[in-house]
Amino acid sequence: MSHLTKEQFKTLKHSLIEEKNELENHFENEDAGSEEESLRASTGELSSVDNHPADIGTETFERSRDMAIDENLDHQLEQVDHALELMEQGKYGKCETCGEDIPFERLEAIPYTSFCIDHTPDRNVSDRRPVEEEVMTLPPKGAGEHRQQHAGRFDDAEAWNSVEEFGNSDSPATAAKRDVKNYDSMTLDEE
Fold it and tell me: What is the pTM of this model?
């Protein structure tokens, strides 16, 4: 006998059917064969030669992102179908690992789950790192937030203040410095 009331069971079944319809509509509304289409055909361009490389990179990124989303949604649709099968068999709401009842609150949040919280399979999160990290050198000692202050250098925010004190080509301070410099060079030439 299921731990779910008839009303809870009906609510969960309705949620699963609604989710299944949404997922199926997603796949029906997509362009058929868009993954197999060439980049040229999908962008509508006659050639990719005249485009900036970043445009092609963006399009490639968008296509790979869409493929990953579709893969995830396809997996979710399989889980929804599996949950509906379990409902038909009278096994819905039981953990596939330990056989214990899955609380209604969990089923309400994730109606297609077939595992209790303790036995939820680990998501395979890749721990792969970019190959560039193998050849990168460590930053210099002291690199970070206050590195430039300790090194006696200024940052971009201080650059304007430093430049401003010298003035511009039209300011009196610059003209006076230019006149002094010209006078010094004239006196050296005369000697």
Answer: 0.55
Which tokens is 84 given? 């509906």
Helix (H, G, I), strand (E, B) or coil at 94: strand
Within the chain, all domains assigned CATH 1.20.120.910 are found at 6-119
Contact 111, 83 (CB under 8 A): yes
The b/e string for 72-93 (b: 16+ C-beta within 10 A; e otherwise) is eeeeebebbeebbebbeeeebb
Angle, vertex CA 110, rays to CA 107 and CA 112, nearest 5: 85
As separate numbers, helices (DSSP H) first and strands (DSSP E) second, the chain gives 8, 0
The HSE-up count of residue 93 (CA atoms within 13 Å, CB side) is: 20
**pLDDT tens digits along 107-131:** 999 999 999 988 888 766 667 777 7
Question: What is the rounded distance in angstroms from the CA atom of residue 4 to the CA atom of residue 129?
Answer: 45
Domain 6-119 = CATH 3.30.230.80: no
